[in-house]
Amino acid sequence: MGKMYRCRYLAHGLYIHYDCFRHCHLSIHSPSERNNNYIIPYKGPKDKVDWNKVFEIKNTLVKNMRDGDIPAFCKGCHWIEEFDENSDEQFLSDFDNYLDMLWIGHSNECNANCIYCFSFQEIAEHRTVKGYDIFPLFKEILEKKIYNLEKAPQAHVSFAMGEPTILKSFDDIINIFTKYGNKYFALYTNGIKFSKMTAKILERKDVEIKVVISLDAGSGEIFKKVKKVDKFKDVCSNIKKYALAANKANPVDLGVKYIIIPNVNDTKEEIDKWFDLCVKQLEVKYLIADIEEKWFVRQCGEVPEYVKDLLRYIRQRCIDENIAFEFYDRALVLNL
User: Fold this and answer.
1) pLDDT confidence of residue 124
2) Could you give the C-alpha distances from 98 to 21, 40, 324, in angstroms and in order?
3) Which residues does 178 contact at the CB level (< 8 Å), separation at least 6?
């Protein structure tokens, strides 16, 4: 049979978009292929979900991947795993009909206007898409064990679109999943609004929330160029509060990211300011580096050596200072 492929996201993931379900959140990185990542329409409680159809579509993709046929919207994705018919692990559970990864992206409301926002163009033109009542859906998938914490105790919920902390239902979403025993969450936030709920979870050892804040600057001037809002001091203050909470339980549950944006923040001087601010003043123990996506796509993944050097420089500073570090997405695929 030769090479076979799999992706846990295709098998057990669900991205709840503002007007439909998708297989995974990474579809937002491939806007030209977004229609192929589509599962079924869904615009709120009035739409009854045909879960048999959802899993039928997923199972077809899983089978195709095992036959060596990678969907167009998946090609090049670093989350695809390769194996063969002689592998010890055949991943047969990929055909089981349950979810263990949810990305909540039913609203794109935001309190910043980042120049690198990778929302689909149609969403970017309507940045006030407000979330519908998502609780009937959550109640259904939890009660029916579609989101199955028995089969997948490591199941996790991620907030994937807009600014999650400004959702009126943010705290309630955390509460309903923890009530059913969910122990893992991921929050991608700009940090402008402080969330007491997030700080509370960061302090706990029995429930984990991975918080990633994209600061992308070491100075207010550059921050304003990137975010298009003058909130640098507010974000730094909130990072400090989150760090104090995380350091009581698991310091690396809080990560601060630097997305390199050519001709905006691509200097060692700004990176040093960011690093020293995060480590020496804000007490952050985990740093992340990436490359701005729209620029990366325009470059067809061809990254100039000076950008690679900046990424290596961030990594080396973290090694020297004994700070946890990670490359994300575009930086990760460069294999530096």
Assistant:
1) 53
2) 15, 16, 33
3) 207
